[in-house]
């Protein structure tokens, strides 16, 4: 009301000022010699009109500034409401995350499966939680676990309970694979996985983009795959064990790759894999067939004190391989393909030959 009253006063003042200007200019012109009444009125009208026009310009400018201030206030209000809504969503997401983590400790299989799916759903709806969710799922897989088919001295009830736990763990493995981006996704984040000491069966991460993989002392059962994966960070399989097949064909290791003291009881396939960083297979044991056919090595490889008890194919891309082969032994009872400059010394053992580059 006060603003409208001030506007009315300004309008009245402008009208009075314009009328006064009209009277003043007209009177001044009419008071002179040879005064022309029409010219005097016209000139006075122009003066009055100029005052009214100036007032109109000022009024339009003021209204524009008022509209801009109103829009700025409205935008600030919307931003504040958006910030409050985002805060509420984050708080709800935090509560969902904590609740799901709590439910992972349940004794009921279906509750643990539901908690895992709740975590995965949170990561899909709130991508900022993806690494945290992966950390929690990996932590779940790192929990001590006795495989029901590969642990001795288990009674029937322990075997049944172990089978139920195994199903939940395999659900966790599938959710990890679902949350990882495909290797060829542009600008995709490379998430880290910490599976140190985990017991895994049928883990399939084929074609995924992964950052840092910690799999020290991992226990791999049946068939597991990192085929076609791209690893942006270091990869550690130190002192791990594979009791079945391990598929790593076409995998790309951009940084160091460690298989030191690794034990493989079944076939391992590195066909077409690319090792760009420091690579070690030192003190490792391979009882099944191992192939590196068409694999690429960007740096020297460490095969020192390694033992290959099955077939070994080292027909790498380019045909040249520079490696530390001190104490490296290869079975003479199986087919093997070694670089042309390598020889097997069988003077010490009949079944294994020492590699002499």
Q: Report how far the terminal alpha carbons are from each other.
A: 99 Å
Q: How many domain regions?
A: 3
Helical/strand content category: alpha/beta
- Low-confidence stretches are none
Give the radius of gyration: 40 Å
Secondary structure tally: strands: 26
Major β-sheet, in short? 11 strands, parallel
Q: How many H/I helical runs?
A: 5
Shape annotation: elongated
Coiled coil: 59-93
Keywords: Coiled coil, Membrane, Transmembrane, Transmembrane helix
Pfam family, one: Pentapeptide_3
Transmembrane segments: 12-31, 43-60
Structure in words:
The protein has 357 residues and is α/β, with parallel strands linked by helices. It folds into 3 domains: 83 residues; 76 residues; 176 residues. The chain contains 5 helices and 26 strands. The strands form 3 sheets. Strands 1, 3, 6, 7, 10, 11, 14, 15, 18, 19 and 22 form an 11-stranded parallel sheet that branches. A 9-stranded mixed sheet has the order 2-4-8-12-16-20-23-26-25. The longest helix has 67 residues. It is elongated and about 115 Å long. It starts with a helix and ends with a strand. The model has no long low-confidence stretch (mean pLDDT 87).
Topology overview:
Layout: H1 2-30, H2 37-103, H3 109-125, H4 130-141, H5 156-179, E1 191-194, E2 199-201, E3 209-214, E4 219-221, E5 223-225, E6 230-231, E7 235-236, E8 241-242, E9 245-247, E10 252-253, E11 257-258, E12 263-264, E13 268-269, E14 274-275, E15 279-280, E16 285-286, E17 290-291, E18 296-297, E19 301-302, E20 307-308, E21 312-313, E22 323-324, E23 329-331, E24 336-337, E25 343-345, E26 352-356
Parallel strand pairs: 1-3, 2-4, 3-6, 3-7, 4-8, 5-9, 6-10, 7-11, 8-12, 9-13, 10-14, 11-15, 12-16, 13-17, 14-18, 15-19, 16-20, 17-21, 19-22, 20-23, 21-24
Antiparallel strand pairs: 23-26, 25-26
């Amino acid at each position: 009301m006060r603003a409208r009253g001030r506007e009315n006063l300004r309008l009245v003042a402008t009208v009075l000022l314009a009328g006064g200007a009209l009277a003043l200019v007209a009177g001044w012109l009419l008071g002179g010699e040879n005064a022309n009444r029409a010219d005097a009125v016209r000139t006075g009208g122009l003066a009055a009109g100029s005052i009214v026009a100036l007032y109109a310009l000022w009024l339009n400018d003021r209204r524009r500034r008022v509209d801009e201030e109103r829009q700025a206030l409205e935008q600030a209000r919307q931003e504040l409401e958006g910030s409050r809504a985002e805060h509420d969503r984050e708080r709800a997401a935090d509560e969902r995350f904590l609740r799901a983590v709590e439910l992972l400790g349940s004794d009921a299989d279906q509750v643990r499966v539901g908690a895992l799916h709740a975590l995965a759903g949170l990561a899909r709806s709130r991508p900022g939680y993806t690494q945290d969710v992966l950390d929690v799922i990996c932590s779940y897989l790192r929990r001590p676990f006795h495989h029901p088919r590969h642990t001795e001295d288990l009674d029937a009830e322990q075997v049944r309970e172990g089978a139920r736990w195994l199903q939940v763990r395999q659900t966790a493995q599938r959710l990890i694979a679902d949350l990882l981006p495909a290797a060829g996704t542009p600008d995709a984040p490379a998430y880290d996985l910490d599976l140190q000491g985990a017991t895994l069966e049928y883990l399939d991460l084929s074609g995924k983009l992964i950052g840092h993989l910690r799999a020290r002392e991992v226990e791999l059962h049946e068939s597991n795959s990192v085929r076609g994966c791209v690893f942006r960070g270091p990869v550690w399989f130190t002192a791990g064990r594979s009791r079945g097949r391990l598929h790593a064909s076409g995998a790309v290791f951009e940084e160091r790759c460690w298989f030191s003291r690794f034990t493989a009881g079944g076939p391992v396939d590195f066909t077409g894999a690319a090792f760009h960083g420091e690579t070690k297979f030192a003190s490792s044991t391979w009882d099944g067939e191992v192939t590196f056919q068409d694999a690429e090595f960007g740096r020297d490889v460490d095969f020192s004190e390694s033992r290959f008890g099955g077939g070994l194919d080292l027909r790498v891309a380019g045909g040249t391989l520079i490696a530390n082969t001190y104490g490296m032994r290869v079975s003479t009872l199986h087919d093997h393909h070694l670089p042309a400059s390598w020889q097997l010394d069988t003077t010490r053992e009949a079944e294994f030959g020492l590699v002499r580059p």
